[in-house]
Automatic annotation (TrEMBL):
Residues 324-360 form the CBM1 domain. One of its GO terms (cellular component) is extracellular region. Has a modular structure: an endo-beta-1,4-glucanase catalytic module at the N-terminus, a linker rich in serines and threonines, and a C-terminal carbohydrate-binding module (CBM). One of its GO terms (biological process) is cellulose catabolic process. This is AA9 family lytic polysaccharide monooxygenase.
Length: 371
């Protein structure tokens, strides 16, 4: 399952270390490396307890002297990285809102994840970006409060993850001034450094080259955040959802402002419930119990309120016996039998089973006895 990691490791010599170089907002860029806190080299951070985990080496020095880029919640953001053959995920975090992003180091608590791509359709995030010139696009979440933020882009290379400290973090930070409608905060939040541990199962993977299943992988940093407290509350629709006829719908509660109940029409909702399935009756073709001829048994029919009486008859006797005698092949005995036991026409009453004795010809009896 991890053949792509092995294959990509051979490309590493040609395209290994990397940096974030450019940001686009709705496909418009302020320029190459504008708005970015550029590190002194393209080497990775490997110590997850280092302050460099926040915004790379030198990226937490303030004031940063970096331009802040304007954006709005919901905008499309594209990041442009050096292409790399190192397999692994890409994630994005925001820190804020703050009054002045250029004065914020980003070290510590307050980061929340807004984007993550791991292993999708047989390819790591870096492979997808490799085919796209090193670019990756995502959207700023709705519900962000207006203010300035740090945007942290992280690519984790897992080609050395078989050893503790072998995971390589490539980090780039941009400064954004976001216009939003939110009045609350986003969460959950994490601290960087602090949230990552060198022994975490998504950083240290001893079997990364032998038996590791990347389809179950999730990048560090916790789940994607949700942002609440939108500044403008959408109007409540007066149309109630219609329940589907093929499913069972839950009751719909109407929220009516106090004092205005006469002004808001309350829709009538008809819920259609799927009828209960009718069980299928399977009638066996082989009977396990031998029933004596002449008995009456009840066999259930497909109608749940009716049953059918079936009479089990003895074999039809052949010939005609005298009064008080049993004809040839007729019943002449057995448990619960109360009829005549005298066979006519020279026949002999022979036991077939405990419930059924039959009148058979003497010739047939002699042939069976010799056999």
């Amino acid at each position: 399952m991890f053949q792509s990691l092995v294959a990509l490791s051979f490309i590493a010599a040609a395209s290994a270390h990397q940096n974030l170089h450019q940001v686009w907002v709705n496909d418009v860029s302020p320029g190459y490396q504008v708005g970015l806190r550029m590190p002194p080299s393209n080497s990775p951070v490997t110590d997850v307890t280092s302050n460099d985990m926040a915004c790379n080496v030198g990226g937490s020095t303030v004031p940063s002297g970096v331009e802040t880029i304007a954006a709005s919640e919901g905008d499309s953001i594209t990041v442009g990285w050096d292409t790399s053959g190192h397999p692994g995920p890409i994630t994005h975090f925001l820190f804020g809102p703050v009054d002045d992003a250029a004065q914020e180091s980003g070290i510590g608590a307050g980061w929340f994840k807004i984007d993550e791509v791991d292993y999708v359709d047989g390819k790591w995030a870096n492979e997808v970006m490799l085919a796209n010139g090193g670019n990756h696009t995502f959207s700023l979440p709705a519900g962000l409060a207006t203010g300035e933020y740090l945007l942290r882009s992280e690519m984790l290379a897992l080609h050395g993850a078989q050893t503790i400290g072998g995971g390589q973090f490539y980090i780039g930070c941009a400064q954004l001034k976001i216009t939003g409608t939110g009045s609350g905060s986003c969460g959950p939040t994490i601290a960087i450094p602090g949230a990552y541990k060198a022994e975490d199962s998504n950083i240290y993977i001893p079997n990364v080259y032998n038996g590791f299943d990347p389809t179950n992988y999730t990048a560090p940093g916790g789940p994607l955040a949700s942002c609440g407290g939108a500044g403008t509350v959408p109007a409540v629709s007066s149309k109630a959802p219609v329940a589907s006829a093929s499913s069972t719908a839950a009751p719909i509660a109407s929220v009516i402002p106090a004092g205005n109940s006469s002004e808001i029409p309350v829709p009538t909702v008809t819920l259609t419930t799927r009828p209960a399935p009718i069980p299928t009756l399977v009638v066996p073709t082989t009977l396990a119990t031998i029933t004596a001829p002449g008995s009456v048994i009840a066999v259930p029919s497909l109608s749940p309120s009716n049953s059918v009486n079936v009479t089990v008859s003895a074999p039809t006797p052949t010939g005609t016996g005298t009064v008080g005698t049993v004809a040839l092949y007729g019943q002449c005995g057995g448990l619960n039998y109360s009829g005549s036991k005298q066979c006519g026409q020279g026949a002999t009453c022979q036991k077939q089973n405990d419930y059924y004795y039959q009148c058979v010809s003497g010739q047939a009896f002699r042939r069976r006895a010799r056999a």
